Amino acid sequence: MGVSTHTARQGIQQRHRADWRGWKFMWPFALVFVFVFIVPIVYAIYISFFQKRMIGGTVFAGLANYQRLFADPNFWGSVGRVALFTIVQVPIMLALSALMALALDSMKLHGTKFFRIVTFLPYAVPAVVSTLIWGFMYGARYGLVASINSTFGLNLDVMAPNVLLASIGNIVTWEFVGYNMLIFYSALSTIPHSLYEAAAIDGATEWQIVRRIKMPELRGSLAVTVIFSIIGSFQLFNEPSVMKSMVPGNAISTYYTPNLYAYNLSFVGNQANYAAALAIVMAVITMAIAYAVQLRSMREQMK
Amino acid sequence: MSASQTMSIREQEKQARRREKERERRLHKDEAAERKRAAKSGFQNPQNPRRSTLLTVVCGIFALYCLFPFFYLLINATKTQSDFVSTFGLVGGHSFALWDNIVQVFTYQDGIFGRWFINTILYVVVGAGGATLLAIMGGYALAKFRFPGRKIVFAVIIGAISVPGIVLAVPQFLLFAKLGLTNTPWAMIIPSLISPFGLYLMWIFSDQAVPNELLEAARIDGAGEWRTFTTVSLPLLAPGIVTCSLFTIVATWNNYILPLIMIKDTNWYPLTIGLNNWKDQASTSGGTAIQNLVITGSLITIIPLVIAFLLLQRYWQSGLAAGAVKE
């Protein structure tokens, strides 16, 4: 009995004494993180309440920037564009990734290794370079599309304003399909193979194994890939920014996506305060959607 | 004497590698034989199923899609500017101009491309290297210690992942401008030091690859926390570290928005911004189109990363797999 009270007391003591050792390893990350993340965000919130006036310089403006933003059709147009982009592109890309991961994991391919590398390879290409390559291919004056048009007497134009978003979607899909495939694939490879054997002995068909064993395992990683993809496509910037000068006319406006709008506002239009308000609203929208879609499963892992 | 010793070690390594290769070849042969036997007897081993040609062809189409731009890039890097504009996109030009193009890329504008290349390597070594180091330590701390504020740290970091880059970029620029850091390598390096994804990866990996019992044993033996970390944990984390550094290297090498905002001085451009600048040159008044150089430069830009991926595939795949194995 004496022993048990002793250990119980020790347990309580341990629970009460904070264990600071972790900070020995955490502080360098935390320090830089505060400098490049927290301080800028706080600063952005701060300046979003100010306005630069012709007369009187920068003055406190309360919520004026936000009021202007909510009435800004350019802003809502850009949000609508990335929302449409997200709804169409993300499911296509993730479906392709998941199918490829299942195909690789089935071990039924000739040269599994080859396929695994090839599908992941586009991830190594910088967004600028992949947009350049695809942009050159899309080009109706000098690119591959031009070659095809002149050879077959067609008049294709994948950079026309009505299909431009889809063409950008193709570039983004190409860039990230392998990356998402890899996340799915590593989730599938956590399944112990003895499970498949057991299922096969029990007379499960291949399709049943996929549906009952593999699909549930994919669900966890699906939440992660969906969140990252939504965040990524709401932040769409690199591809339209690089393509801007490759597209004929003004098809990619300065407010094509929210990020492009914020960039042009602050670095071309010299309206950093308004851009800060825009960026904050976008951050809130993105986070709200990410939470709504499922941040819970990631938190579950956290325990 | 030490020279002969290293020689013998290298020799041993070579032999081990040869043996490994031989073993793989034998395994491959055995598996193929098993498949043949299984096909004959109508039984299938789920660990070694029959290869499906149909599935391979379908995936082959997909692989073609993935490889196509590389192919296009390779073909067009061999063309002169006039051939690029006038000849069919998927066949060679009138002359094979790859070497000319490469020489031109490195000599155009007094060899500024070489400078951009060196800048990129500097940003990757310091930025991605630092990011990996911070992620290893932070992930280890999150996985192995229950320290006060741990949950807040985690929530803040997960939240930070969903903050759009531009939210940070605008105020980061204003702050860095105040500190006089814009147009210097620091403007590129300091923000690159933080990789929330790297931290997440190392946290998951430390959680699984470093057993608590081992840490306890080291502590009982009187090792300090730092020593436990460097001698016990780091070697166990090695495959995860390779994976993490691969991702931070890609992130830094491919970064576009950060240098676009921070760096206006062409001498400090990384490759991505430099190439984009060359591409835009044609659209400025009086600029000559140098698309052949943009394409060849793009090819040179992606080669190091593609090679890294091919060489490290064993590491990052085993890294991801080892991080995933939990029983």
From TrEMBL, chain A:
InterPro entries: MetI-like, MetI-like_sf, UgpAE/MalFG_permease. The chain crosses the membrane at residues 25-46, 82-102, 114-138, 158-177, 218-237, 274-293. Belongs to the binding-protein-dependent transport system permease family. Gene3D superfamilies: MetI-like. Keywords: Cell membrane, Membrane, Transmembrane, Transmembrane helix, Transport. GO terms for cellular component: plasma membrane. It is found in: Cell membrane. This is Sugar ABC transporter permease. It is a multi-pass membrane protein. GO terms for biological process: transmembrane transport. Residues 79-293 form the ABC transmembrane type-1 domain. Pfam families: BPD_transp_1.
Automatic annotation (TrEMBL), chain B:
CDD domains: TM_PBP2. Residues 1-46 are annotated as: Disordered. Residues 10-36 have a biased composition (Basic and acidic residues). It comes from the Bacteria. GO terms for biological process: transmembrane transport. Its main location: membrane. Signal peptide: none annotated. InterPro entries: MetI-like, MetI-like_sf. One of its GO terms (cellular component) is plasma membrane. Keywords: Cell membrane, Membrane, Transmembrane, Transmembrane helix, Transport. Residues 117-312 form the ABC transmembrane type-1 domain. The keyword Transmembrane applies. It is found in: Cell membrane. It is a multi-pass membrane protein. PROSITE patterns: ABC_TM1. The chain crosses the membrane at residues 54-75, 116-140, 152-174, 186-205, 226-253, 289-312. Belongs to the binding-protein-dependent transport system permease family. This is ABC transporter permease. It comes from Galliscardovia ingluviei.
